[in-house]
Input
Amino acid sequence: MNFKIIENGSVTTPTGFKAAGVTCGLKKSGKPDLAMVASELPCSFGAAFTTCNFAAAPVQVSRSRAEHEKTVRAIVINSGNANACTGARGIADAEATCAAAAAKLGIPAREVWVASTGRIGVRMPMATIEKGVGMAVEALSADGGIAAAEAIMTTDTVRKNVAAEITADGGKIHIGAMVKGVGMIDPQLRAVPHATMICVVTTDAGISNTQLAGMVGAGVEDSFNRITVDGDMSTNDTVLVMANGASGVNVAPGSELESAFAAALLKIMQILARKQVMDGEGATKFVEIDVVKATDVETAKLCAEAVANSLLCKTAWFGGDPNWGRVVAALGYSGAKFDPDKVNVFYNDKPVVIDGCDSGVAESELAKELKNREFKILVELNNGDADYWVWTSDVSYEYVKINAEYHT
Amino acid sequence: MNFKIIENGSVTTPTGFKAAGVTCGLKKSGKPDLAMVASELPCSFGAAFTTCNFAAAPVQVSRSRAEHEKTVRAIVINSGNANACTGARGIADAEATCAAAAAKLGIPAREVWVASTGRIGVRMPMATIEKGVGMAVEALSADGGIAAAEAIMTTDTVRKNVAAEITADGGKIHIGAMVKGVGMIDPQLRAVPHATMICVVTTDAGISNTQLAGMVGAGVEDSFNRITVDGDMSTNDTVLVMANGASGVNVAPGSELESAFAAALLKIMQILARKQVMDGEGATKFVEIDVVKATDVETAKLCAEAVANSLLCKTAWFGGDPNWGRVVAALGYSGAKFDPDKVNVFYNDKPVVIDGCDSGVAESELAKELKNREFKILVELNNGDADYWVWTSDVSYEYVKINAEYHT
Output
């Protein structure tokens, strides 16, 4: 059973979802800063949150809903203020945001989630948020997915949304999604997403919380947890998958349709994760680090992440410098155990290091590969058959500029 | 028993050492690129090396000497070529370098060490090295310490040397030292130094290998292992402390003099480590991260290193942005366990975060502290009484420039 990707699809592609993006004044820039996604029907859900020890108030509130409730109906997402490190006051503000949306939507507050991104440590201006929530409810529309994807952006330069369609025996299922986050992006924790990233996925499939929990866990592991921009994890990361069953098609556990649904969900997460790295703060390169033939996955992962997070590698990529010494140095200090004399490294298909030494391929030839917007660094450890890959970007002058001068 | 620091002292300040720095043509820039330090008498020694899994050929050769020999007489250090990832050929080249120096000095090759820094993966041009070794032996002089400190520089902008004097009952003891390395600098491994750093310490004290081993281990732990510039560890790190006894003063185990000697050696290592961070590639800030009142040292260390290595913190410091959200985010993802509601953060003496929330001190006040060339970030976890500190620098446009365009 196959699925097709709808490139410009969004969270309102599936039946029975409305969304909105409005400008209520949280951002000094005057750009849209509050989004809402709402379902006409109660939704089952799957979710993942930051494991940062300083979890923001909205994360604490939404995580509590995830633990105690069986359904969700809406999520309010604001940019411009993270409501993190705001103490008990912040929790109360996040709850008040849910309550305000619930009152306007005529649903219980426990069915409304909240996610925030922006400056840490500043109290949420509640009058502004409440105004925004009112505006968003007014603006909710069945084609509001694009506006919502725009309203959650911070340092993102392009909105990131996509959808998929699965043709099942009983009819068509749609999955729609949006994500934000191109800085504070790092893949080091397990089974949960990180980075200042907020991702909302909607689907009109009928599917249980238990099924979604497994798919979200596996999905983030092979998508958002594989990307790194700067090695920093955020206080506010949230992924929510909402399923309202409005298609009338039920995804039975163990069915072929379930496999297709899981594959489509993973593909959507990977498309979004890829868009995040392509739009990484100041990024001029998209680099896949592929470590293969390792003794075990952990070894391959240590190697891949060390190279991906090496500031010296990242600046060399920016400079188009084939300086592979920095790649092997990163492999060497990664903490992974392997035999350095067996290591091969390739830039795309060109051999760089063979048996731990210079391949002899001219630097000018290697430099050509690094001129591409996208390239792959393949590392063969030749010690086993486990592998791991990550996607990352370079560090440019623009990265420094964005982060030396950023104030939401 | 006290010691005094001799600011412009060098490896030739102690009696019985000669040194030289020459230009043999390893660097395209035409700057000095080969140094030698030699003792008239055989020396006891203490040493530490990179734990990078891709240890360079000179590290392998010198480490083998450290394991199998009791004495050392001389070390050859070249910049411009790291002789790393050069396989069996590289080992033979490193041995040949020692042999060439030994022949000219009239001593056994097993008493000559070698250290290299520069480009990885390029075979050492042996004719050039051998010419350089000959030039260095000719140039050896009792006031050659400054020239040697200059010849080991790569991206360093200033030479780094210092000495200390201890007045003991039997006479004066001197300790002299030099270091290079302002990039590929990271503190994550234990009991060994890292970073592309090469440090040579000389002393005319009489002291045993066993005594020096303990002091070098403890000394690097509280100096070179506390600094980070870019989070990258090198293939070539080497620290050698050589003691020739020429002062006639013996440092007896357990004596007051031994304590003074250890304190002076540590102070010298800290002065050099500090110089490395001050001269960190592109650095405009020197930042001390001080984590106190932690449950244990490991927790404090995780916190300090997460903040010190955070690219978002480093770019904020460059921008003079008091954005403390990035500091707490780094503490949060560090993996350390602590109660976020008890955390206080200070910039110098100004409260930034109290009980996990904004202290209320105006941003403009906090920004003043970050305008200083040097400042301290104090983190109180309020969970115990362990602490840990690290020294780090910011990431600037110049850092990116140096590393996007660096080819020794």
About this structure: The two ends of chain A are 44 Å apart (CA to CA).
